[in-house]
Specification:
With about 100 residues, the protein is of the alpha+beta class. Helices cover about 25% and strands about 30% of the residues. The chain contains two helices and six strands. The chain has a six-stranded antiparallel beta sheet with strand order 1-2-3-4-6-5. Strand 3 and strand 4 form a beta hairpin. The model has no long low-confidence stretch (mean pLDDT about 95).
Length: about 100
Amino acid sequence: MASTKDFQEKVVAKLEKFGEIKCRPMMGEYLLYLDEVLIGGIYDNKLLLKETRENLNYELPQIIPYSSAKRTMLYVEDLGDEDILGKIVLDTKRGLGK
């Protein structure tokens, strides 16, 4: 199932408070960049982030983003708590070495 434009816009609106967000469409889904760093994506209307040592302490569910994926990603279910959301995405970016 492809992600909806409405969900993509909702996620971008939440994340743009933490830096420059770019969203690149990719085969019905979206790749998410925070300050030019690929931090994750939107898959099946779910915000998924790359796994890093820095974001594992949030104990987010690990899921496979698509059938041929080689790695799991972390599923951010709660987009409502912007303080926690900000910490998670900024820790993800930091964990990716940027």
